[in-house]
Amino acid sequence: MRVVAFNGSPRKEGNTARAINTVADELRAREIDVETVHVGNKTIAGCVACGQCARNRDNRCAAHRDDVNRWIEMITAADGLIIASPVYFAGINGTMKAFLDRAAYVLSRGGGVARYKVGTALVAVRRAGGSTALDSLHHYLQFLEILTPASNYWNIIHGRLPGEVERDDEGQQTLRVLGRNMAWLMHAVQRGKQSIPLPATEEKISTHFIR
Q1: 189 lies in a domain?
Q2: Is residue 202 domain-resident?
Q3: Paired strand residues for 71
Q4: Which candidate, 35, 55, 166, 175, has a CA 20 to 30 Å from the CA of 210?
């Protein structure tokens, strides 16, 4: 099995990358390959609400001048997903949000190819705002019906300078437990899909409150 991890930090080897590695080590120890994609140092445009992906339903974004479509293909091909970000003003950073806004909407309109994959989110933070940033990342996973493993605390690790997260003993334990639980869930889902029919899908209903 294979997991693709997206690092939203501008720093390739910063605390967000190190947090991903803690989870990835547990996955690799359980025969799951992990590939990390560095998103945070790219120039990614936000969604312009053109609606082309909803009309085409081909799992592609019409704004094809960056790497988002290639990353969508990687998510589609993978069994699991990690999305990770540093905390900017109590939220995820702008590049990561631009990527996830587009990718999640495309995938939600393209036949549910992300449904019942296993995915998790984590954040690296200096001091405060980690919970709100983590909540924001989880919204994307839930919207796509991706199955999320739990840990023994929220998936937040603390540090300012690169490498400081390695001294956050509780945060490191949280991510180790997360990695083990994610690996177990991935193996369970793989076996379950072989013997238990997937739930019936429904066409998405969209409503609003202006009449």
Answers
A1: yes
A2: no
A3: none
A4: 55
CB crowding 121-151: b at 16 or more within 10 Å, else e: bbbbbeeebbeebbebbbebbeebebbbbeb
Decide if 22 contacts 52 (C-beta within 8 A).
no
Q: Please choose, from the candidates 101, 178, 185, 183, the residue with its C-alpha nearest in 3D space to the C-alpha of residue 143.
A: 101
Provide the CATH number for the domain around residue 51.
3.40.50.360
Looking at the predicted structure, is the pLDDT value of residue 211 above 90? no
Tell me whether residue 45 is in a domain. Answer: yes
**Contact (Cβ atoms closer than 8 angstroms) between residue 157 and residue 174:** yes
Tell me if 203 is assigned to some domain: no
Lowest mean pLDDT among 23-32, 106-115, 124-133, 154-163: 106-115
Query: Closest Cα partner for 171 from 187, 194, 152, 189?
Result: 152
- Which residues contact residue 167 at a Cβ distance below 8 angstroms, ignoring those fewer than 6 apart? 159
Q: At what angle do helices 15-28 and 169-195 cross, to 10 degrees?
A: 50
Cα-flanking dihedrals φ and ψ of residue 170, to 5°? -70, -40
pLDDT in tens, 180-207: 999 999 999 999 999 999 999 888 888 9
Residue numbers of the domain that contains 119:
2-195
User: pTM (2 decimals)?
Assistant: 0.95
Is residue 115 helix, strand or coil?
coil
Of residues 109 and 74, the one with the higher pLDDT is 74
Rounded to whole angstroms, how far apart are CA atoms 81 and 74? 10
